[in-house]
Design goal:
SH3 type barrels; Elongation Factor Tu (Ef-tu), domain 3; 3 domains; 5-stranded parallel sheet; 9 helices; 17 strands
């Protein structure tokens, strides 16, 4: 049996992951990363529930102060991104730079673990021919979280287990109840941890970015209204514009230099292609030429057909052009584009660049 450190948030998913591995006979240690103060499943409430779970299971429990790492890699990343007119995706960044980086190092170096495990809904397999570790969608497509995990390295995948990858969410709840876990009926978190703590993303950003009033304009530059900071807007946004118009208007651009929010009709928010940088080819080696795949450009978006054309950025890092089979609505700079093989294998992913970078 293996020595496994399980990341605990205090929720039902990570609780069942820990209990499953413990019941299989592994030597399990619970670990919570202290990311910030305040309410939320990653904070004081979560640590209390995680500690009780470990006491009930009779396993060791550790808390690692990761607030400085979280501030540097996630909070600063978000604030800088919004200030530059993009909409960053913190979860994949957090997984690669906070949870599966420092946590894995601590588990192996300090606790002598063989593996780490989490309550994510995803699967890891190893290709018998290439030896490469492959990330795959979870059985429960409604809960699948592979979109947020595309940036994991081969070393991280090799040392990680996802005990819930073959389960559905109802099965997880049922198992928690059958085991008598106190988290069995705990409500599921609906927001980012930062949103849970601050109440809204707007409140969080207002703590770091001062109001900077400017104009809301149409594509021709005609002033239609006012805004109090471009960081409060995102591509494809319709609500909250405060503009009366005969047809619905959407945010189609954020001009940092002019401090303008550009709006237009729905057709103006569709794009036939985009580019993505900071690419990670997770389950396959970088291909020599274009490949066909299904691409997901937001967590809850349906995967759509596309052609992925590999290339390189000016600094030599991998970059791709994504040509959609049909134009897509609301392609948002800062969000992740993740491309899948039919059947659910995650081929790779990257961060969507502003349109002018295409």
């Amino acid at each position: 049996m293996s020595k496994i450190v399980v990341g605990l948030s205090g929720g039902v998913d990570s609780s069942v992951a820990a209990a499953t591995l413990h019941n299989q006979g592994h030597e399990v240690t619970g670990l919570t990363l202290w990311l910030m103060k305040g309410k939320g499943q990653c904070c004081s409430e979560g640590m209390t529930d995680a500690a009780k779970l470990c006491e009930d299971l009779g396993i060791d429990y550790k808390v690692v102060d990761s607030r400085e790492v979280f501030e540097r890699n996630i909070v600063n990343y978000l604030v800088e991104g919004y200030a530059q007119g993009v909409t960053p995706l913190p979860c994949s960044q957090c997984n690669s730079t906070v949870k599966f980086g420092p946590m894995l190092s601590y588990a192996i170096d300090e606790l002598g673990a063989d593996y780490i495990a989490t309550g994510h809904y995803a699967r890891i397999t190893q290709n018998a021919e290439t030896g490469r570790y492959e990330l795959r969608r979870a059985v429960d497509r409604n809960k699948d979280q592979s979109y947020f995990l595309y940036d994991l390295s081969q070393a991280q995948l090799a040392a990680t287990q996802f005990p819930l990858g073959e389960k559905t969410k109802p099965q997880t709840r049922e198992m928690a109840a059958s085991l008598g876990l106190h988290t069995a009926d705990k409500p599921e978190s609906q927001d980012l941890c930062l949103v849970e703590q601050h109440g809204s993303m707007k409140t969080f950003l207002d703590k770091y970015l001062a109001p900077k009033p400017g104009d809301i304009v149409d594509p021709a530059g005609k002033i239609l209204g006012q805004h109090d900071g471009i960081h409060h807007y995102t591509i494809g946004q319709r609500k909250g514009l405060g503009i009366a118009a005969p047809n619905p208007l959407y945010v189609i651009g954020l001009d940092v230099g002019r401090n303008q929010v550009v709006v237009g009709e729905r057709d103006s928010v569709t794009a036939p292609s985009c580019t993505a940088h900071r690419v990670n080819w997770v389950s396959i080696a970088p291909p020599a030429g274009p490949i066909s795949a299904e691409v997901q450009i937001r967590y809850r978006a349906a995967a759509v057909g596309a052609t992925i054309v590999p290339g390189h950025s000016a600094d030599g890092t991998d970059r791709v052009k994504i040509i959609f089979d049909e134009p897509q609505f609301g392609v948002t700079p800062g969000q992740a584009a993740v491309w899948y093989e039919r059947g659910g294998r995650v081929l790779g992913g990257g961060i969507i660049e502003p349109i002018h970078s295409a």
